[in-house]
Amino acid sequence: MNKVDFVIITGLSGAGKTQAMKVLEDLEFFCIDNLPPALLPRLVELHVQSQSARQYAIAIDIRVREYFSDLRQSLEWLEGSGHSYMIIFLDCSDSVLIKRFSETRRLHPLIKGKTEAESIFASIAEERRLLAEVRGMAHVVIDTSDMRPMDLKVRISDIFAGIPLQESVLVDVFSFGYKYGAPIDADIVFDVRFIPNPFYVDELRHLTGQDAEVADYVLRWPATQLFLEKFTNLIYELLPDFAREGKGHLSIGIGCTGGQHRSVAIANELARRLENLRVKARARHRELGWSSS
């Protein structure tokens, strides 16, 4: 979708507004929780004064219900000011909402003054009635009844960023030396000690995989090229599945004996190839204390 200046997240309590705001924050929106709609023009004024390209995400829920009467007027003002906006309404079935409140032991914001027997059912029904007009104004309605948090993340990312799943995961490729210990914080570890070792070439021994001479030596072998081609394609093909499971960061360890030559050159080349596929990738080198980011 086209870029919007203001995104308004609203909907039923327990339907996932907090999760949606976290996703938008990850997408570099400036997030504001429970801004009274009447203050929206003031926020726009500050936005204009700052002359920034910042996008805003504003969560409005039933806790500020006394201000909902101002929402339509504020949105009309916003539209007339030339700023784009989108309203997304999060819906959910009564049975799922009741289960969520029971599991989290949270009280519904409208529960005050109701008997225990009627409280949750009556509160949800009252909230639906109070939010009916706002729901009708929404550009997008998402039913989260059958959604896991990672499903909502993918849906929000698709709506507001239009980012292919392969581009939504940061791939952290790092080199290391087995002689200093295998990493315990990597999602995937690959041993590249099958590649001829530049350490045994006198003119290359004192250099590292950061140097062109070493990189050329490591990358010239057919086995190296075969590995890079297949491993790059494998990671690229799996990234959408990692993203669907809510993983925003994938750590790949590339190891050789000392972490100076082969693993360094391979990590750099793997990150470069992934970047050419429009994947967010960076290379760093544990034993060299260096990062490309």
User: Considering the protein shown, what is the CATH homologous superfamily of the largest domain?
Assistant: P-loop containing nucleotide triphosphate hydrolases
- CATH topology annotation of the largest domain: Rossmann fold
The sequence of SSEs as H and E is EHEHEHEHHEHEEHHHEHEE
Radius of gyration equals 26 Å
Give the overall average pLDDT: 85
Please report the distance between the alpha carbons of the first and last residues. 29 Å
Low-confidence stretches: none
Number of strands: 10
Number of domains: 2
Q: What does this protein structure show overall?
A:
The model has no long low-confidence stretch (mean pLDDT 85). The strands form two sheets. A five-stranded parallel beta sheet has the order 2-3-1-4-5, with helices on both faces. The protein has helices spanning 17-26, 40-50, 71-80, 94-104, 119-137, 149-160, 202-205, 212-219, 222-244, 262-276; strands at residues 6-11, 30-33, 56-59, 85-91, 140-143, 170-177, 188-191, 249-256, 280-285, 290-291. The longest helix is centred in the last third of the chain and has 23 residues, at 222-244. It is an alpha/beta fold and 293 residues long. It is elongated and about 80 Å long.
What layout of secondary structure does this protein have?
Layout: E1 6-11, H1 17-26, E2 30-33, H2 40-50, E3 56-59, H3 71-80, E4 85-91, H4 94-104, H5 119-137, E5 140-143, H6 149-160, E6 170-177, E7 188-191, H7 202-205, H8 212-219, H9 222-244, E8 249-256, H10 262-276, E9 280-285, E10 290-291
Parallel strand pairs: 1-3, 1-4, 2-3, 4-5, 6-8, 6-9, 7-8
Antiparallel strand pairs: 9-10
Helix pairs in contact: 1-6, 8-10, 9-10
